[in-house]
Write a structure and sequence with these properties.
The chain is an alpha+beta fold. The protein has eight helices and nine strands. Helix 2 packs antiparallel against helix 4 and helix 6 crosses helix 7 (about 225-235).
Length: about 280
């Protein structure tokens, strides 16, 4: 084979798993930084400088793709998938934008309607393949917009369980970068701020894992002295959402009720296994 002259040899760099690269592509590169990524599944990921914390197996603890640091991670199995299921079941011919157009007119708490996103079991904090989803509190006054908002709130409550585990370990979480499908809707971003009781930051780029891989290549090529320096150039904020104190208070009460649902429905769902086809 004829040798090609004058061409640069391609450089190859070690990358990382999707969430590790997503953390880099969202700037989760120092203490206090936390990521919420809502795709088919949902992830809450927080930076850790050392590997000496013990979460009792409730969350995952992994090597970061940044050098010599780590991250903790909790996972909701059916995050965006719960919304996709709801749309395909009840609004198959409509867009997501139309389905969610009225959720902003529904008050926090969806008029007393709660949803648990256990469509395919759950991972954090309940490693349970048998648990299944529920709508709790339905009455004849509820309309589709109430159900749509309840689905968004239920997904966010599930992710908040991971955040609460982090906080109980002593982590301070006051700012969260939101990426993925959950960052595409302004009402949902405000729900995240209110339920997480933290400032939510939306970036101009929503492609966290792809951006992180590009940043690793830029750092590996010697363009920047650190990934943090790289992030300062690559990543820009698009908008911020601050918690609404009245909604925070309502959601804290509702979250306590949400947490009761798993224990109250676990045995019933196990009995229903015999009837699933």
């Amino acid at each position: 084979m004829q040798k090609l002259q004058g061409l640069h040899r391609p450089r190859v760099f070690a990358g990382g798993a999707d969430n590790a690269c997503g953390a880099i592509g969202s700037g989760i590169l120092e203490d206090g930084k936390t990521l919420c990524s809502i795709g088919t599944s949902g992830v809450v990921l927080s930076y850790e400088a050392s590997s000496d914390k013990d979460f009792g197996g409730k969350v995952h603890y992994f090597n970061h793709s940044a050098p010599d640091v780590y991250y903790t991670m909790g996972v909701t199995l059916a995050a965006g998938y719960s919304l996709t299921w709801f749309k395909e079941t009840f609004a198959a011919d409509e867009s997501f934008e139309d389905l969610l157009a009225e959720v902003g007119s529904v008050p926090a708490g969806s008029n007393g309607l709660l949803f648990t996103p256990y469509l395919v079991g759950e991972r954090t904090p309940h490693a349970d393949a048998a648990i299944r989803a529920s709508f709790i509190g339905m009455d004849s006054s509820h309309r589709r917009k109430d159900f749509a908002r309840a689905v968004l709130e239920g997904i966010t409550f599930s992710l908040n369980e991971s955040i609460e585990i982090f906080r109980e370990s002593g982590k301070e979480i006051d700012t969260i970068v939101s990426i993925g499908g959950g960052a595409q809707n302004k009402d949902w971003l405000q729900m995240q701020a209110d339920i997480f009781n933290a400032k939510i930051v939306r970036l101009t780029s929503e492609q966290g894992p792809g951006m992180g891989a590009a940043m690793l290549a830029a750092f590996g090529s010697g363009w920047f002295s650190s990934l943090k320096e790289c992030a300062d150039v690559f990543l820009k904020e698009d908008s911020q959402y601050e918690p609404n104190p009245a909604n925070v208070e309502s959601y804290q009460k509702l979250f306590s009720i949400y947490q009761d649902i798993y224990g109250q429905t676990k045995e019933m769902n196990e009995k229903l296994l015999a009837f699933r086809k």
